[in-house]
Amino acid sequence: MKNNLKELKALKLEAYNHCTNATLEHALRIQTQIKSLETALRSETKSSAGDKHETGRAMVQLEREKLGTQLANVEQMQRTLQKIRTDTVAPIVITGSLVCTSAANYYIGISVGMFSWSQKKIYCISSAAPIAKVLLGKKIGDVITFNNTKFEILEIC
Length: 157
Prior knowledge:
The chain is an alpha+beta fold and about 160 residues long. The protein has 3 helices and 6 strands; from the N terminus they run ααββββαββ.
């Protein structure tokens, strides 16, 4: 995937924006679910009595705690993104790099899956992902082996 630097920078910015939008949408969904549970918890308090009431409250409370943990994880992902400089082009793969290889294209930031832009597929991965750990610190032309497959780093932005 030989591109000029301007195209790579645009692609990198799109990957960053995709990650940002994905975390914002996820946080909004979780917050909506939390509000719904809190409403259910209030109505459960008003309308029930006995063991059934306590079981229902406990289940709602457990779900609320689970959503709270998910929201904290999304907020951590947002903090990770805030630390990334989108205008930096390093000679080696770092967090925030767009890495084009002979096998696939990766944006190393946070894990939000694959997206397509301008007929190119980019996998948005965390720096803790196994493939990211192999790529970090490498430079253009390096040949990497991952899952018994060899591929070459073609471009870094």
